[in-house]
Amino acid sequence: MDLKGKTAIITGASRGIGYKVAEKLASQGVHVMIAAREKQTLDKAVEDIKKKAASGTKVFGVVTDVAKLADLENLYNEAKKQFGHLDILVNNAGVSSQYSFEKQPIEDIEKLVMTNYLGYVRLIRLAINDMIGRKQGAIINMVSGSTLVDPVPRGFVTYSSIKVGLKAFLKGLFWEMRDHGIKITSILPGVVDTDLTGKLQDITSEQKDRLMSADAVVDMVMFALSVPSNACPLELAVINQQTPWTKPVIDFKQEQAK
Ligand SMILES: NC(=O)c1ccc[n+]([C@@H]2O[C@H](COP(=O)([O-])OP(=O)(O)OC[C@H]3O[C@@H](n4cnc5c(N)ncnc54)[C@H](OP(=O)(O)O)[C@@H]3O)[C@@H](O)[C@H]2O)c1
């Protein structure tokens, strides 16, 4: 895909992975609309991305809570109003959550479903018919490398199983949308150095040193957008050589006893 002049929505792009993706796309001449809940951080991100954007590239910010359908409708309508049509959707906004299940508040479970699952599915549903009409479009989704672990990591059972469900949905959608010329890609990042992982409990300084930079994930997004028009990466995993999940997933004492 020649990116110059294309249009994109990137959710959760006021910081972290989404910000880096938006910055990169704008630097390549993609007109971007970024979304997040907190206005001040979003406004600052818009200003910073403008400084790195290719000349003539438009950068907009729309305050959005992806857990709310009305906010998603507003975001998509704004993109249509400003851009006329949407070429690229990067579903990225997500929240983390680390609990033993018996201690996890019900509200936290609901928030994960609304944000990390419905936030993606609903926005795709809003955008898909125009893409089908134009017989083109790329939808890139930030899933999680934790979906590669079976059973899903302890302490992240709700978060990771929702991402597993999301990955399954996207895999099915890949085949359905292939018939319409639309590309659906899931990115499965390992553990990336962002605010999201900064909140993890029991992460040691040694483990923190192993976190990937968001640039590794940006490279995956750019790869997905750069393959020939008759090809599409279905799932791209970029994983740390060792992750903090190694500890809860594999019981170290049992390993030693073998
Ligand atoms: N970091 C990792 O190790 C890692 C690994 C695998 C997958 N992922 C996935 O990658 C995505 C991005 O993670 P990250 O590490 O970059 O997170 P982050 O640094 O915490 O940034 C999250 C971004 O999403 C926005 N956001 C959160 N909830 C939102 C909502 N309800 N509506 C709209 N925007 C929302 C945040 O802004 P506001 O708070 O202002 O809304 C922020 O811009 C997530 O889907 C996450 O599950 C991350």
Explain what the structure shows.
With 258 residues, the chain is of the alpha/beta class. It has one domain (7-257): Rossmann fold. 48% of the residues lie in helices and 15% in strands. A seven-stranded parallel β-sheet has the order 3-2-1-4-5-6-7, with helices on both faces. The longest helix has 29 residues, at 106-134. NADP nicotinamide-adenine-dinucleotide phosphate binds next to helix 1, strand 2 and helix 6.
Spell out the blueprint of helices and strands.
Blueprint lengths: L6 E5 L4 H12 L3 E6 L2 H14 L6 E5 L5 H15 L4 E4 L14 H29 L2 E6 L14 H22 L3 E8 L5 H4 L6 H5 L4 H13 L8 E4 L7 H4 L2 H6 L1
Parallel strand pairs: 1-2, 1-4, 2-3, 4-5, 5-6, 6-7
The site of NADP nicotinamide-adenine-dinucleotide phosphate has 32 residues, from helix 1, strand 2 and helix 6.
- Give unreliable regions as ranges: 248-258
Class from secondary-structure proportions: alpha/beta
Write the H/E string, N to C. Answer: EHEHEHEHEHEHHHEHH
The radius of gyration computed from the alpha-carbon positions, rounded to a whole number of angstroms, is 18 Å
Q: How many helix segments?
A: 10
Helix content: 40-55%
